Amino acid sequence: MKPQQQVMSPQDIVVLLKIITYGDAPWFQLAMADELYISQSEISKSLARSKFAGLLDTSGKKVSRLALMEFLKHGIRHVFPVRPGALVRGICTAHSAPPLNNTIASDAYYVWPSASGDVRGQCIIPLYASIPKAAKSDIQLYELLALTDALRIGRARERNLAVGELEKRIL
Prior knowledge:
This protein is mainly α.
C-alpha cells in the first residue's frame, strides 16, 4: 500500500479555533461536533491532521498556539485563498464583522451566504459550510473566524489589525 500525504483541510482551522474558545475547560469530540455541525468522524480526522502538522500537542487536546498563530499570519491566505463573489444575503465576516467593524468603516460588506443573514454583501465562501450556523451560537468563535477571514481576504491594513486581534485572543 502506498503511503498517503497528510493534507490540512479548511475545517481543521475551524476545529482548532473552537478548541481555543474552550480555554482551559475540558472538551469532548461529540459535543464539539454538535456545536460545529460537523460529524464526529470529521472532528476525529481533523484532530489527527492537526497533530501531524504540529498544530496540536501529542495528547490532541491542546492547541500549539504559537504554531497556529504563525500559520494564520503567514499561510492561511495562500493555503485557503478566497475571492469576493456575487452580492448575497448573509452574515458579516472579515472587516464587516466584530471586532474589526469598530475600527474599519466601509460601505462594502463581506458576508458568509446564509438565508438567516440580515446584510447584503459580497459572498465569502467560509472555511466550512456550517460556519454561519455555528458562529450564530458562539460569539467568541464568530470573532475568531471573522478575523481569520480578514487574513484571507483583507488588504495589508485589515490583515495587520486582524493579526493584532488574533494575537490577543490566541496567545
